[in-house]
Structure formats: C-alpha cells, structure tokens
Design goal:
Chain B: Forms a heterodimer with PSMG1. The PSMG1-PSMG2 heterodimer interacts directly with the PSMA5 and PSMA7 proteasome alpha subunits. Chain B: It comes from Balaeniceps rex. Chain B: Keywords: Chaperone, Nucleus, Phosphoprotein. The complex is a heterodimer. Chain A has 4 helices and 8 strands; from the N terminus they run H-E-E-E-H-E-E-E-H-E-E-H. By secondary structure, chain A is α/β, with parallel strands linked by helices. Chain A is globular. Chain A has a 7-stranded mixed β-sheet with strand order 2-1-4-5-6-3-7. Chain B is an alpha+beta fold. Chain B has one domain: PAC-like subunit (Rossmann fold), CATH 3.40.50. Helices cover 29% and strands 25% of the residues of chain B. Chain B contains 6 helices and 11 strands. In chain B, a hairpin with a 3-residue loop joins strand 9 and strand 10. In chain B, helix 1 packs across helix 6 and helix 2 crosses helix 5. Chains A and B meet through helix 3, strand 8 and helix 4 of A and strand 3 of B.
C-alpha cells in the first residue's frame, strides 16, 4: 500500500499479522521457540496450611465456594483499599510469570506499583478465595493461567466473580462517551448465575477481552 | 460445515454473521481452545430484550438441521504459533464428526492482485480434488473464476506455480491440509482492503448463495440478509456535539 508520501508500507490488517508459518522451522528455530515458551510459562505456587510452598500440582482440588478475581491495577487497588487486610485474609498463593510487559515480583509484601498476582484466603471461611492480579497476562499465557489456577479448584458449587476495568473511550454507545457520567458499572453473567446483578448488563456491541474474558 | 477464515477486512466472519443472523441459527456448542484471543460479550444476534443476555465467546458453533448446515463463527484473531494446531484440531473434528463438506469464506489483499485480476469479478473459488469431482461442473455453470496460482519465484522462473493467498490467514493452510487429508473443501474468497467491509461481506455471502441457495435469491438480494444487532457502532461511539 502506498501512502501519500509515496512510500510503500504494509497495511495493518484487522485480521492479524499474516507473516505466519514458514513451514520449515530449523532445529535452531525450534530450540529458540521452546526456550521462549519455557520462559513464558505460568507457574502457580500455593502455600499449604503449614506455610510450606509447593508446586501447583496439589493432589486434591481446593474446596472453594467463592472466588473473586480482580484483574488490572484499578480492580486490584479496589480490593486493597476496601476488602483486604492482614487480619481477615492470609496469602495462600502466588503466580509467577514473565512477558514483554511485566515480570511478577517474588515477594508477597508487594507495593501497589508492583506487578503481582497473589491469592488470598478468608481466615474465617477458608472456602472464600480472592485473587489480585495487577500484572499483564499476555495472550499466549491467558489460557495457561486459566487452566493452572482453576485446575486446582473444585468446580461444583463454585461462584466466580471477576472485577476488571476498561477505558470509557472503548465503550461503544450511540451518544458520545464524553457526556457519559463515568465511572459506571456493567456486567456479564452466565446462564447459571441466578442471583440479582447489581448493575445493568453490558450492551451489544461491547465486548470484554484478555484475561477477564478467558 | 460453513466457516470463516480470520482474514483481511474480516469479510469471511462478517459474511458468516449474516448467515447466522438471517437463518436464525441455534447455537449448539463452542470450541474451548487456546488458539484464539479470548473475548466474551452478550448475544450478538439479539433481537429483543429476552434473547440479549446469552453470553457469546470467540469460537461458537451454530446449526440449522433443515438445511443440514453447521456453521462455525470465529470472533477473535489467532495467537502466534497457534495457526497450525488449530487447523489440525479443526480438521480432525471435521473427520470425526463425519462432516461431508467444508466451505471456507475468506478474503485476500486487493492490492496484491496482478493486472488481469484487477479486471472483472473480485470473487474467486478453490476446490480440493475430492470436491472438484463432485461439484466442479456446478462452478463451470455458475461461471465462477478459480483462484489463480502465482509463480513461486517471480521474475526468475515463471513455470513453477504455487497457491498464494496474502491476507487470508489460515485459508491456505486449511486448504492444503484438506487436500492432503482427502477432505472435500471449497474456499470462497473476495479481494478487498481494510475499511468498511460490509459491502464486501454482502458480495461474498451472495456469491455463496449462488451455489448453496441458503435463501431465495431475488433481484435485490442485499435486502434479504438480516444485519445482526452487534454490527451497530462498528466504527465507534457517537461524536461529541462540542466537536462542531
């Protein structure tokens, strides 16, 4: 495609990058790809009651009745400000991952500006779990995150609530978004969620993407 | 099985939206896959308050038993390095579910056309050898144009020709895999560019209809297809009045 100035550029396509799949991958390429994949692996580490850390392959799935996941800085900050405290909640797990945008901190004593992904459990009711995920989980890691985190949990009787934020500018509506009173809440729910939702449902054509969607 | 390729202008996907919406197809399942970027929203084909609350995700399957038609809709881009695993999984599903034939709707960059392709119809078709035997004759009658092959080494050696579908996403991969696995697959594609691709989607879905006769084709066929409610605001929200 030629621009006004006469240079030829590759037009960005909504369909995604098409430079895929040189069918022949040399052994070196395969090795590099494998190394990269290993580096991008998502590790979920749970600490048991005794306080010792183990790998995520717990023998039995956690019994969990409520799982609240806060994704993104704003949602994580909301939980920090209004819900979490060191008296009622204890840290029970952490996710370690790396991608081009962030690396998770190794400690559980995190600053609000760090990138982290921690799991907390309500001491008075250990079936209530909370996850604060302020690190960006890349596209290729989202499925892994999902499988590894939910893989440890018993799914019967589990209610999941996901908290997230999106820029108002991304919201599609008939009027201009400038005049919208913000911030505002919208929800998406599965058929199985029978309780009352506290805010209006997200109207078409708006969608949710990335980790909250996964 | 009718499905789109995630390709330039998303034309295949838009065309599939028209098919699902017009034929009022029922959702029968979805793909739980790590190959596509996750997304979720409310029912894109909602017509009223009552049916607008069903969640919809990135790869869903719809069916219309009366026409023995199954449609797969893909709503997000592929994740890097996942084209091949997706194609393999898809084709093994096609085989195991004993699907007779696959029709893939796709598109290709208009600016990559050669001089001859610039003239005449921008619509093309491709058939795997197994399907060629069955319906090759119909394509002749419809006067359709087969997608031309291009020289493998342009300028150096013009005799060796290969199939090249720039901007077609998984089209070429799915097609070549189907050829080698003996699957009956047809590819219908349109040359186009990024932009408002709604007219391209209509052109492609009418092209498909010439062959499959999904709806009755009358003189003004664009009015026969039902636009889904999710096509509202394709280019963003309303403008702030203070702008003017």
């Amino acid at each position: 495609m030629a621009t006004f100035f006469g240079e030829v550029v590759v037009a960005p396509s909504r369909a995604g990058v098409d430079d895929e799949e040189s069918a022949e991958e040399t052994p070196e390429d395969q090795e590099i790809r494998r190394e990269l994949e290993k580096k991008r692996e998502v590790d979920v580490l749970w600490s048991l009651k005794s306080g010792a850390s183990t790998e995520s392959s717990a023998d039995e799935p956690f019994v969990c009745s409520k799982f609240i996941v806060a994704i993104g800085h704003n949602a994580a900050a909301f939980l920090s400000s209004f819900i979490l405290d060191s008296v009622c909640w204890e840290v029970v797990g952490v996710v370690k991952l790396w991608n081009e945008w962030c690396r998770t901190s190794n400690t559980t004593n995190v600053l609000p500006t760090d990138s982290f992904c921690l799991f907390y459990r309500l001491i008075s009711d250990p079936t209530v779990l909370l996850c604060q995920c302020s690190c960006y989980v890349a596209e290729d890691q989202q499925f892994q995150w999902l499988e590894k985190v939910f893989g440890c949990m018993q799914k019967e009787g589990l209610q999941v609530t996901i908290l997230s934020t999106c820029p108002v500018a991304d919201y599609k509506t008939q009027e201009s978004t400038l005049t919208l009173p913000s911030p505002f809440l919208k929800a998406l729910k599965t058929k199985e969620f029978k309780e009352q939702v506290c805010c209006p449902l997200l109207e078409q054509p708006n969608i949710v993407r990335d980790l909250p969607a996964a | 099985l009718l499905q789109p390729a995630v390709s330039v202008g998303n034309v295949g996907q838009l065309a599939i939206d028209l098919v699902i919406s017009t034929l009022d197809m029922t959702k029968v399942g979805y793909f739980y896959t790590d190959c596509l970027v996750p997304m979720v929203g409310n029912n894109p084909y909602a017509t009223a308050e009552e049916n607008s609350m069903e969640l919809s995700i990135n790869a869903e399957v719809y069916s219309l038993p009366s026409k023995k038609l199954v449609v797969l809709q893909i709503r997000s881009p592929f994740i890097k390095n996942k084209y091949r695993p997706f194609c393999q999984t898809l084709l093994s599903w096609v085989k195991s579910s004993k699907c007779v034939r696959v029709v893939l709707l796709s598109s290709s960059h208009a600016y990559q056309r050669d001089d001859e392709q610039l003239l005449g119809t921008p619509l093309r078709y491709l058939l795997t050898p197994d399907l060629e035997k069955a319906v090759g004759g119909i394509m002749q009658e419809l006067n359709w144009k087969e997608m031309e092959k291009v020289a493998a080494y342009p300028g150096i050696n013009d005799t060796e020709k290969v199939l090249h579908i720039p901007g077609g996403g998984i089209t070429k991969l799915l097609f070549t895999e189907s050829c080698s696995k003996g699957i009956q697959m047809a590819v219908l594609l349109k040359f186009c560019s990024e932009g408002d691709n709604i007219p391209d989607a209509f052109a492609l879905v009418n092209y498909l209809n010439e062959w499959l006769q999904l709806i009755k084709s009358e003189v003004n066929t664009s009015s026969q297809w039902k636009i889904p409610s999710s096509w509202r605001l394709l280019f963003g929200s309303g403008l702030p009045p203070a702008l003017f």
